[in-house]
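Possible race condition, two jobs.
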Amino acid sequence: MPNIFPFKALRPLPEMVQKVTAKSTDHPTKEDLVNELMTNPYTFHHVTKSHMSFNGAAQEPEKFLPFAAKYIANMKSQGVLFKEEKESFYLYEQISASGKSCEGVIGLCSINDYRENRIKKHEEIRLSRLKFLVELFKTAHIMGEPTLLAHNRDVNLDELEATEIYRFVSSDRKTHVVRRVDNAFAVAKLQQNMADIESFYIADGHHRSASTSEFNSLVPGLDNDKSMCYIVHQNQLEIHPFHRLINPINSVDNQKIIAELAIHFKIMKSDKPLYSISETNDFGLYLDKQWYLLSFESQNNQLDVEILEEIVIRGVFDIQDSRTDSQIYYHPFSNGLEELLELVDSDLYSMAFTTKPCSFEDVIAIADSNKILPPKSTYIEPKLRAGLIVQEFNEI
């Protein structure tokens, strides 16, 4: 069974939490991000988007990450970020604008539990992202956003003695509530309540888990044998797809693409957008301002994302490593239909493929079988704000 541990978090003053914390994904436009970096010296985007402060290649983190380290040092010296005096767990609740609530525990998990598969993964990672995060941890000595883990055991959090430290509404109309658990009895009770959980499953944060493991191997002189995680019951998760946009290196004939796809799929034109797919083995294709419904009719035990990867990404477009190939872009479901249409209609990408999301039961089955899905197979919410609760890697 995986273990969880309390820790002394680095966190913003309550009166500064809205200025410091930053949306970790689904960002506004690049212009909005640049404006935020220029006008808000406190935003944690000075860490997560530090490449925008360096007039150079975003692929060279060793050049721009010193900006991230400087930000952390400045915020600590100004007292905007401060270190807890007692080792604590944090009960974090996020309430969406529609009223849907998700609550779980922020604490530390052992790197060895990840390596020994008690914290189970299900998805491929991109090496460029792994490199960036390892360099961030090495340079700034912090982890500003936890890995999202899921489990299937009932754990009563309401019975724990906890002190509310934050309650605020972010610009995306989500309410954030954080309560600190630092009473020794309550800390022990929480650990005991979660002790019978056989496995944790990575819902979001495969790169963070892999990079903290890599970081620990490369830099043994820091207190980095554990990594920060947000642990929730699986029934609180919302699972959406990442859609695939393709921009082939060589120009393609649209009718030839349709003909190749027709070998594997029944194809019908659709008068309605196929951004949301509800039926298993159905896919949407947006090409030349026309939607097509692709129905896979062969008997196959693969998940839809595996079918799309094997037959379309690799078979039709010969993209053999979708983790690194620039011909493919992953469009988060929450970014919306209009953005997807604009990306294709503006000829930035040639076409888009949409798919039904996996269920978390699918994810568990894949992880328990020690199998790996293609990168960006799931888009799972909640998404946490970076800089809310921060793990600091101190010298041993």
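Job #2 (started ~2 s after job #1):
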Amino acid sequence: MKNITAILCLLLLTLSASADRVKVRLFTNNSIDLINISFDLGTYNLYGGDTTLIAAEVGNDKSVELTPKGKLVHVAIDGYEYGNYPHVTFSATDTACILCLNPRNVKQRTYEGNLIVSVGKNGKLFIINDVEFETYIAGVVQSEIYGTQSDIFRVQAIISRTWAMKNIHKHKNEGYNFCDQVHCQAYLNRCVRPDIMLGTMQSSGMTIVDANDKLIETPFHSNSGGQTANSEDVWREAVPYLRSVPDTFSYHMRQSEWVKVVDESKWLNYFANKHKLDITNDSILNELLTFSQSQRKVRLCGVPLTRIRTDFQLKSTFFSVLYDSTAHRVTLSGHGFGHGVGLSQEGTIRMVGLGIAYDSIIHHYYTGSHIHHDETHPHSYVENYIKQIARIIEEDKNLSTQTKSKKDDWLGRLFRVRDREEREEVYDPTTEELDSDWKYDW
């Protein structure tokens, strides 16, 4: 009888209500002409087109180098040439497998799941991560928000999951679901922190819906500066759940305040030349040099603040103008960072720190919305998974001064429990482990 129950099932069944796997384009903003792929956990089958190059033997002792060759992908493994193929696929033999991606001149990343590499229209490598939906969400949470409390990650997971489910076909015509940049959601690495995975799993099966039980759009930004924006003030369309609300929780955070100094002539000539304003008119001149916002406004002398933000590369549209006639310059004194619509991430961090419940945070930023709990979701598996992750976090606290190795990766540790379970052994974390306890050679 197995005494550590359902770890394998947990890894396989902690999926979204409507999506098992997604395809995410990696390194979207980079031109990759060479990538080296190594393996941190598990083994892979390697295919070149429909040809099996290596079956279930590509592991941590292998190194695969891919380069574009015309419209084909050239494969070299440990220095040996394996030929050219229309696409190359790394297929994980288990749920717990980790790839390490090292593109030339680009920072290294690691991902779980499968990898599909082809050559794009620009002649560079086109890289897709085929990954379980919830694994993707955890990677997004890690890339999108900072903090240490699990409810921070729970909130981000709920809004990121909602966005992903609503926009699942965003890049359908290009052969994948999402890109890895803020055009979709940032996905810059696999989730390497168990506390982030804990928060993600605590939100399992949760999405945000409107009064008609339809998935909502869930825009978010770094910091509102003290007041969020109406959707129509940024994107024209008025949406009932994206209303401007007071947000004092965003005060006194990393991105609360900003300042930018601009020469007087550059500031005034911008409005005269680009927007045809008569800056000799005293009323217009006075407005341009003394503009202030105690509450969010939409325009300055008829010019959309969103346009000014873009042209002057400002952190937000929530700013006031201070004129220095002696130095002939204006100082833009601003609040917040981002478009200001929807959820403020730093406001969320502050609210969690004050003990405000995660659902209250969501209701504050998305007016009139409510959280939908998927009743078909495998809650028993999720709860057991959460217990295992929580145990790992406690172990980490007790071992905080020790140097960690690949064995200490939270996914590897879950993998180890499952490996022992397959051999019907009782897992005792207090028992010293031997090299022979490991199925895989690290």
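The domain at 7-134 is CATH 2.60.200 (Tumour Suppressor Smad4).
Logs attached separately.
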